[in-house]
Amino acid sequence: MSHFLWVEDFENNPQATTHDVFGSILPDTYAIPDSRHQLKRTLRDYGIQVALSFQDGRQFIESPARMRDIDYIVLDIDLPACSEGDTEDSKTLKYLQDWHGYQPDDTDASADELNLKKASFSLKKIAGYHLYIQLVMELGFPREHILICSNHGENLLSIQQAFHGAKMVAPIIYTKSDSSIRNAILECNHNPYTALRRGIIASCQWVLDWLHDDDQIAINRFIEDHNRHYCQDDIRLIFESLQEILPRREPEPEIKYALFRQFIRALSHAWEITPWPKEKPERPAAMLLNARILKTCRNWSAHGKIFNQALPETLLAYLMLMNLRAMLAPETSIMLHERVLLCVFTVTPSGKETRLNSKHEEKLRKTLASLIKKYNYSKNVTQQIPTAITFDNGYQKKHEFDRLLNECLNDPIFIETYAEELLRGLFLLYWTLSNSKAEQDEFHTELDRALNQWCFPHSTSTDISV
Question: Does domain 4-189 have CATH number 3.30.720?
């Protein structure tokens, strides 16, 4: 789910305007209020912040803390200088003086008021232009993350003239009543990269707000006594850094995948000092599962080139979810930031991701024949899930699939040839290491559903037990 800032004064019908612009992403159960202030309050629950005037919008975009929570901005062109009941602040007055002919008159209050109204009327016609210029030219906000729209034909001409006068190419200007704006909003909301980045930031912010006691740091349960354990400051530093790695603008693929590799290294580095996680009373089954996945990820990142390929957004969302539940000790119920990360699995595929399917699994099984024989590894391809490894004595052990993958990673030629299939092994680890009977809490139920739909798109069953 992407987060939006909507700068809109709702000059006409607030309900119709909201439906025309954001109807494609608001749930059918949402009863759109007919009051501007009710809209502003209730739309927050759906990731939409509302500013009702030029001044409100300007103050919002000038706040780094508030802008951290914004992915896209929807600008109306026609905006009042300030909201009803407010007075112009010094920066708004400067805009009126510099660009719209306002000349303060300290000797005649009536003349000054008239001058202010004339200047405010002039600003109103291109207020969205001023905000766009400040966002792009001063604040470095990606221009492709800004959508300008209006229902006033005369304002379209005014803003086009403003861009022409500034020797700038005008962006696409949408008409609110046209379906193209709803489609553009839907596309923004279903962008996998933006959904991933939003989930990462939300998760990091949750950690920074939630953490208050060293006992909450679950990774310490996996560190041997003679090694230094992590403290709250260590954990805060990790998550403060993670939320800054991915920029708001989606980079070109080569740069994006390099940043993804950097993120994976930073995410998994904390597990460097931990030995292979073994079963102990103080390590619940779910926490142990997540820790083993992160330890495997750290080993792969440090000692191989498996991540030197196109990496799907779902991989980072998956590892972030695993790390939150392995490094910390949250409640078993699923939390809002985790739901945002799970959305990465359900948004429209970007076309750069190749989903795992039975053909990939069969290819992997045949390719690993010699290693499979070594471990007497069995696999039920018809069910599209890996099963446990069976040894000659009939004893089944669920924690050997990672060893199988790790042996594959010792062969550089093998990695180069089957990099994509091996990468999917990190997802398969969840099924091979987990004990479905032990993972029936709300979080794992939702995680199972998301992973099942993404990893096994041809499977209709939600029972992924091994």
Answer: no
